[in-house]
Amino acid sequence: MSWDWAYSISIIPALLSGLWVTLIVTFIATSFGLIGGLGLGILGSMANPVLSRIAGAYVVIFRNTPFLVQLYLIYFALPEFGIVLSSEVSGVLGLGLFISAYMAEVYRAGITSVPSGQWEASISINMSKFHTWTRVILPQAIPPIIPMLGNYANLAFKLSAYVAVIGTIELFGTALRLGERSYRYLEPFTLVGLMYLIVSVAVTVSLRQLEKRMQRTRPQMTTL
Amino acid sequence: MPTFWDEIVRPLAEGTMMTLLVFVGGILIATTLGIAVAALRLSKFAILRGIAWVHVEFFRGVSVLVLIFWVFFVFPLIGITMTTLMTAWVVIGLNQSAFIAEIVRAGIQAVPRGQVEASIAINLSSWDRFRNIVFPQALPIALPPYANQLVNTLKETAVVSLIGLADLTFRGNELRTHLGHSMEIFVSIGIVYLLLAYLLTQGTSWLERKMRVEPKRGAKPKQTIKLRSFFMGGGIK
Amino acid sequence: MERESPVTTTDDVRSDHPMVEFRNVVKRYDQTVLDNLDLVVGKGEKSVIIGPSGSGKTTILRILMTLVRPEEGEVLIDGTPLWKMERGGQLVDANDKHLREMRNSLGMVFQQFNLFPHMTVLRNVTEGLIRVKGMSKNQAEEEALANLDRVGLRHRASDHTWQLSGGQQQRVAIARAIALKPRVLLFDEVTSALDPELVGEVLEVIRDLAFNTNITMLFVTHEMRFAREIADNVIMFDRGQVVEQGPPAQIFDDPRELRTQDFLRKVT
Q1: Crossing angle of helices A5-45/A186-217, nearest 10°?
Q2: Which one of C66, C117, C127 has the shortest CB-CB distance to B120?
Q3: Residues of B in contact with A165 (CB under 8 A)
Q4: DSSP code, position C155
Q5: Long-range interactions of C165-171: CB distance < 8 A, separation 24+
Q6: In the CATH scheme, what is the code of domain B5-214?
C-alpha cells in the first residue's frame, strides 16, 4: 500500500473545512472554559466552605472521569430529562465544562499565590470586595498563569477530536468519513495527525517562549 | 429499572476488568519507556537528547484518539498486525511515556546540586551517584505528579472503546443501546472511574509516605484563613 | 574529644613537588573569574584564602575538586596534572577514569554541608568507604565510627541528618571527608551558613585536624581570628588574582597592598 498523492491533494479542502470547525469548537469551548474556570477558581479560593467545596467537587468529578463519558452523558442522558442539544452544542458544552475544571485549578493557584498582604492592604483602604478582586487580586493573579492556561487551551484543541464521536463533523470526523467512503484511511489519518501535531507543537513552543519572556520581566514571580 | 441486576452488573464488571487490563499494560510500557527517555533527555550526547526531545514533543502533541485510529487502520496496511488489545497498549504506552519522561526528568533535576557535588567529592562513580544519591531523592519528588499522570492514563483508556475493546465505557454505551436509562448508566460508570482514580491516588500517597526522605517542612499557612476573616468581617460597605 | 588515632596521610616527603599547584589558570563565566592564576600549596601546609565575595576564591576550590574545568592553564596535584592526562606521550584532556583516580587524593567540605538526607549519619560516612575504597560493611562501619568519634558524634551515628543541628551536620560532613583519608582537604566557607553559637564546635574539629595531622588543607573563610591561628600561609585574593600572600602575622598585622588593607579594615 503506497501513498496516493492525488487523493491526498483532493481531500485537502474537506480537511481544511473540518479544521475550521475544529478551531471554532476549540475557540468557543476555551472561552467558556476561561470564564467558567475563573468563576470556579474564585469560588474555590473562598473561605466559605460550602462554596469552595462545591467548586472542589466539580473539579474532582470533571478531572477524574474520562471526557468521552462526559460527552455521552450530555448527548445521551440529558435528552431523557427533556434537554435535547444538537451534537455540536453538546460537544462544545462538554469540552467547555471539562476544560473549565482544569482552568479552575490554575486560576486558584494564581489567586492563592497573591501575597496575603494585598488582601490586608485592600481592607485597610476600605475597598469593596468587588474592587479588591477586580483591581488588586486578579490583575496580579492572572498574568503569571497565562502560559498554563494556554497549555489547557492546547489540550482543548487536541480533545476536540472526541466530539466527532457524538456526530460533529470537525477535522477528525472528516477524516473518518473520508476513510469510510473511499476505503483509504492512510492519507486522511496521516494528514489529520500531522495537522493536529503541527498546531499543537507550535502552540507549545510559543507558550514556552512566552513563559521565558515573562520570567525576564517578572523575576519575582515563581512559576506554578 | 431492569429486572435482572445481572444484566447490568456483570457487563460493567467485565468492562472494568478490561479497563484495568488496558491501564496496567499501558502504564507498564509507559513507565519503562518514560524512564528510558528521561535518561536520554539528560544524556551528555546531543543526539540522544534530541531523539528524546522529539519523542516527548511528538507523543505529547498528538491526540491519543487520532493516534489510536491511525495505528488501528494504517498498521495493517503496512503489514503490522496486532490484536486490538496490543494496539491499545502500544498507543497508550507511547503517549503516556512522553508525560512520564518529563515527570522523571523534573524529579531528577529537582535534586539539589549540592548532593551531586558532595557525591563527586567523595569520589562516587557516576552510576553509584545516580543509584544511591540522586534516584532515592528524585523518587519522592516525582511521585505526586506521577500519581496525577496515572489518573490521566486511566481516563485515556476510555478511547479504546472506540476501536472495539470492551472496556467500561464500551459496555456502558452498549447497555445504553439496549436499555436506555443513560443517566443511570453513565453516572454509575463515572462513579467507577472516580473510585478507581481515588484508589490510585491513595495508593501513591501511601507509597510516598513510606519513602519520604525527611519530615515535611512546615506548610505555607492557607490563604483561605485570611480570606475568611476578609469575607466575614469585611464586605461591601 | 579524643585525640588518639590521628589521621595521617601517606605522603612521600621525598618527592619535591608541591602538593597543589596552579599555573596560569584561567576560568571564565560571563567575566574572567580566575585571571592567569599561579598558586602553590606545599605538602602539609594549611593555606587560607581571604578576600571579598565574588573574587573567585570558591572557584579555586571547585576546580581542584573537579567540579569545574578551567579554560586554560595547568592544575597539578603532587606533580601530576589534574585536568589533563598522558596518552601515548601526549597530553590530552583527562577522561573520567583519570579524574576519579585523582579524586582519591582530594576531599571537600561544603558551606551547605550537603549531607545525604535519605541516609543515617553513619551511612553518610560509610558510603564512600564501601563504594570507593571497597571495604566490607563491617570494616566501613568500624572506620566510620572512629572518624565520627574524632569529631565527637559517635553517639549520633544512627540518627538521620535532619535531626542534627547545623554545627553537628557540618562535623559529620568533615568526618565523611576525612574517612576517605584524602591528602588534600578543601574547606569552602564551612562556617558561613552556621548560627554563631554553632561555629565554635566546627572550628574545634578543624583545629584538631590542623594541628594533629599532616593533611594539606586549603580554606576559604571569613573567620579571620581562626585563620591567624591555624594558617601557615594566608592568601589575599581579589578579582581573580592573588593580591599578596604570606604568613598570617604579616598579612594581618602588616599588609603591604592597599586592597588588602581596605579589605581587612572592612571585615575586622
Answers
A1: 40
A2: C66
A3: 162
A4: G
A5: C165/C198, C166/C113, C166/C193, C166/C194, C166/C195, C166/C198, C167/C194, C167/C195, C167/C198, C167/C199, C167/C200, C167/C201, C167/C202, C168/C201, C169/C113, C169/C115, C170/C109, C170/C113, C170/C194, C170/C198, C170/C202, C171/C201, C171/C202, C171/C205
A6: 1.10.3720.10
Instruction: Report yes or no: C206 and C187 within 8 Å, Cβ to Cβ.
Output: yes
Closest residue in chain A to residue B186, using alpha carbons only: A73
Cβ pair C187, C109 in contact under 8 A: yes
CA distance B183 to B192: 14
Count of pairs with CB atoms under 8 A, one residue in B, one in C: 66
Answer whether A touches C (≥3 Cβ pairs < 8 Å): no
CA distance B26 to chain C (A): 31
Domain covering A5-217, topology: MetI-like fold (1.10.3720)
pLDDT tens per residue across all 237 residues of chain B = 555 677 788 889 999 999 999 999 999 999 999 999 999 999 889 999 999 999 999 999 888 999 999 999 888 888 888 899 999 999 999 999 999 999 999 999 999 999 999 999 999 998 899 999 999 999 888 998 999 999 999 999 999 999 999 999 999 999 998 887 888 899 999 999 999 999 999 999 888 888 776 665 544 333 333 333 333 333 322
Question: Which domains are seen in chain C, by residue range?
Answer: 20-267 (3.40.50.300)
Instruction: Provide, as residue numbers in chain C, all residues whose Cβ is less than 8 Å from the Cβ of B213.
Output: 117-118
Q: Are strands C84-87 and C90-93 parallel, antiparallel or unpaired?
A: antiparallel
Quick one: closest CA in B to A71, which residue?
Answer: B186
Note the pLDDT tens digit of each residue in C68-97.
999 999 999 999 999 998 887 788 888 888
What is the ipTM, given to two decimal places? 0.86
Contacts of B58 in chain A (CB under 8 A): 197
